[in-house]
Q: What sequence folds into this?
């Protein structure tokens, strides 16, 4: 392949090429072809982006809320108009199917649309005569220069969970997308500039751990948002916190779905299959554990047979149900975990290893995989697989299911399928997981509600989206004021001309 593009940085409103001389190949997961080269930018380049953002903050923070809101309104229009182009970039570099990619852009749009509500979200409080002659009021103000570090699995949606809220609230932003699929994130940022963000308000840098570390430690960065693995997220949170920054880290998961005997069998099975294998399982909210209660263990054979009908192919095939994993190393890791399940005594009832798509023999394909007889202590249960692997656990009662799930250290999401409202209420009140789905297998709420993963899946008090997002990217200043009234003889008439 000739004329392979080199992905630029976005600094002070301009696309600039890195001078580092160090590049990584961006690969198409379906065939390993090199589709772009992404730089590992220098720390001086990161510092320059931060310096530009700091300068832009001086004026952007004082820009009227109505203007900032209008930029977000224009951005959602541009993203909507460019949905297919964004989706094509996602599929080319990430591998997910085009319908999945279009769905991702739609979820990102929800977040941008909610950021348009900044005018009401940034209103303070006022109390006249809180004490005699004393007024007290609050100001909701931006933090300054802030940063976001995103994972590969949602290169459009995850940045949308961050920068629209941050810049709408008056901050300036440094985005470091994943080096595995950066083009869609960069194009999204370009659309934000086209929508009216002034130079320096939104900047994009590329790189690995050194760049992330710099964002966590630079004295001019006031807050860091991270979405990715538990290992990296824990380190980001520690470094950012040690350097006095506000930080949120949304991390790994092991999401369970409880299937009750009274649930609609066909609906539960179909929804479970989609939640487990959509996006090839490469999402932090994927359902990776099915907890079959009582007689529902007899439904497993039907679940397996329906799963066999899923089509695995390149993401550009609109009829495909799942595409390849993002990289050869991801495929190797997932297949290694599948083998560990076999070695540790789980029952492999559907094996997706060594899956070959004709014409794409070098692709990172793993077919849908299902284990039964899974127990705690097995790696396939204890670890986040991040691939198209569903493990099945059998229990006798709902309370046993609740105790089993609550014993897992993660708390991103959980679901239950039932037609009994009392069962659902008992479940939602006793399960110790931050996001609960009732007959909804992936309980990610609409964007005007906050993402509320908990326990081992989250570090920091505030999550992305919703009211919590505006709270994370702003600070509250309280003003207590008394004005003397002794000089009443002065003419205080104000001209309205």
A:
């Amino acid at each position: 392949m000739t004329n392979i593009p080199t992905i630029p940085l976005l600094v002070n409103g301009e696309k600039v090429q890195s001078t580092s001389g160090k590049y990584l190949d961006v690969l198409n997961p379906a065939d390993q072809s090199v589709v772009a080269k992404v730089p590992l930018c220098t720390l001086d380049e990161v510092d320059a982006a931060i310096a530009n953002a700091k300068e832009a903050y001086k004026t952007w923070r004082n820009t009227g809320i109505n203007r900032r809101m209008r930029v977000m309104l224009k951005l959602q229009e541009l993203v909507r108009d460019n949905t297919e182009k964004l989706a094509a970039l996602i599929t080319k570099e990430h591998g997910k199917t085009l319908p999945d990619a279009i769905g991702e852009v739609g979820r990102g749009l929800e977040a941008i649309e909610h950021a348009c509500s900044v005018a009401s979200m940034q209103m303070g409080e006022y109390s006249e005569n809180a004490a005699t002659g004393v007024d007290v009021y609050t100001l909701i103000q931006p933090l300054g220069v802030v940063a976001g570090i995103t994972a590969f699995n949602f290169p459009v949606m995850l940045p949308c969970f961050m920068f629209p809220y941050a810049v709408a609230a008056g901050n300036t932003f440094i985005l470091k997308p994943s080096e595995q699929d950066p083009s869609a994130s960069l194009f999204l940022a370009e659309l934000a500039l086209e929508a009216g963000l002034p130079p320096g308000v939104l900047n994009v840098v590329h790189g690995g751990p050194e760049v992330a570390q710099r964002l966590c430690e630079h004295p001019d960065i006031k807050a860091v948002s991270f979405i990715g693995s538990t290992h990296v997220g824990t380190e980001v949170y520690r470094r950012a916190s040690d350097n006095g920054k506000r930080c949120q880290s949304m991390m790994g998961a092991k999401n369970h779905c409880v299937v009750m005997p009274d649930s609609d069998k066909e609906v539960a099975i179909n929804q479970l299959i989609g939640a487990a294998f959509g996006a090839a399982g490469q999402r932090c909210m994927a359902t990776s554990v099915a907890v079959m209660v009582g007689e529902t263990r007899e439904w497993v054979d039907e679940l397996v047979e329906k799963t066999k009908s899923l089509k695995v192919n390149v993401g550009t095939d609109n009829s495909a149900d799942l595409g390849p994993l993002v990289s050869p190393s991801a495929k190797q890791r997932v297949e290694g975990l599948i083998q560990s399940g076999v070695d540790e005594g789980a029952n492999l009832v559907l094996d997706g290893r060594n899956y070959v798509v004709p014409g794409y023999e070098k692709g990172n394909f793993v077919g849908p995989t299902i284990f039964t007889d899974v127990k705690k202590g097995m790696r396939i249960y204890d670890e986040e697989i991040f691939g198209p692997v569903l493990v099945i656990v059998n229990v006798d009662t709902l309370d046993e299911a609740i105790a089993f799930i609550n014993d897992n250290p993660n708390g991103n999401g959980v679901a239950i399928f039932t037609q009994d409202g009392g069962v659902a209420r008992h479940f939602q009140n006793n399960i110790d997981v931050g996001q609960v789905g009732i007959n909804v297998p992936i309980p990610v709420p609409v964007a005007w509600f906050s993402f509320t993963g908990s326990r081992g899946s989250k570090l920091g008090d505030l999550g992305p989206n919703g009211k919590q997002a505006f709270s994370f990217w702003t600070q509250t200043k309280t003003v207590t004021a008394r004005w003397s009234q002794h000089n009443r003889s002065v003419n205080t008439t104000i001209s309205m001309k």
Notes: Residues 9-251+465-479 form a domain with the Aldehyde Dehydrogenase; Chain A, domain 1 fold (CATH 3.40.605.10). The longest strand covers residues 134-142. The two ends are 68 Å apart (CA to CA). The chain has a mean pLDDT of 96.
